[in-house]
Amino acid sequence: MFGIGTMARLAGVSVRTLRYYDERGLLRPLWVDPRTGYRWYAPGQMRRLHRILVLGDLGVRLAEMAVLLDDNLSAEELRGILRLRRAEAKDRLAADAQRLARVEARLAQMEETNMPEFDVLVKRTEPEWVLTATEQLSGLGEIEAAHGRLWDRLHRTLEELGIERVPPSIAVERGSDPIALTAALPVPGDLVYDQDGIVTEQLAGLDRAATTVLYGNPDFHGGYAALRAWAEETGESATGEWREVYLDCDGPRDTWVVELQLALRQPSPVRSAALT
């Protein structure tokens, strides 16, 4: 028989590891000295230990190992578990590749500006019930005036309905020629309204959005430019939808807080593989 120290040395693991496997019921010693508590192993147990180490190297969780160590486990069952571990490993690689691309984009931004003004975060947004009004615009030059008209209509409608306005207000831009500009105010989910082009609807959440927050006197032009540059640096593909989320815009303009959102497509498998 091998003592625990010898067993650990032959397997290339620590004594602490063997004790842990014993505690988890994965590899019990053949005999434990009742006086000293010293563990002893049979040479044949090296095969089981070797399989434990191989499975661990393949990313199999300890909770699953007891099943995989069962001699009655079929080859197809083993393949199924290993395929799952393969899929998880690929997902981690893709996530790491995307994170690396974001780090590279951040470094590029810092090198260009020395003090980066726009922090970019990719996140998911939730759907929300809103009261909306939309206009079709022929170009960017019409956006400012359209904002004034749309928000004025929505605010008057809320007053007529006796509903208190709560932040955040949301502006959505879709397309480029023409531009569909939608102004949206949050409302209770049970409100039904459809008059004169003002309707209640559920604004869809975004599965992935590149976002940055503007503080003080918002530099919208700089924020949009930063998100475009970030998308180009990271190789992300945008859907063509932009959102301005007015988190706090009730006071003077130099106290405003606005989040810009650029809707992103899901990364393609080809792109993820290329990044890795």
Primary descriptors:
276 residues; alpha+beta; 9-stranded antiparallel beta sheet; 3-stranded antiparallel beta sheet; 12 strands; 25% strand; disordered C terminus
Structural class: alpha+beta
Largest sheet: 9 strands, antiparallel
**Kindly, what is the distance between the CA atoms of the first and last residues, rounded to a whole number of angstroms?**
46 Å
Beta-strand percentage?
15-25%
Total DSSP E strands = 12
Oligomer: single chain
Coarse shape: elongated
Radius of gyration: 29 Å
Strand arrangement in the largest pleated sheet:
4-10-12-11-6-7-5-9-8
Total count of helical runs of at least 4 residues: 8
Average pLDDT number: 86
Tell me the series of helices and strands, N- to C-terminal. Answer: EHHEEHHHEEHEEEEEHEEH
| Poorly predicted ranges | 270-276
User: Share of helix among residues?
Assistant: 40-55%
Model description:
The protein has 276 residues and is α+β, with helices and mostly antiparallel strands. It has eight helices and twelve strands. The protein has helices at 4-11, 15-23, 45-57, 62-68, 75-113, 143-161, 220-234, 269-275; strands spanning 2-3, 31-32, 39-41, 121-123, 128-137, 169-174, 179-186, 194-195, 198-203, 209-215, 238-248, 257-264. A hairpin with an 8-residue loop joins strand 11 and strand 12. The longest helix has 39 residues, at 75-113. 18% of the residues are buried. The model is unreliable at 270-276 (pLDDT under 50).
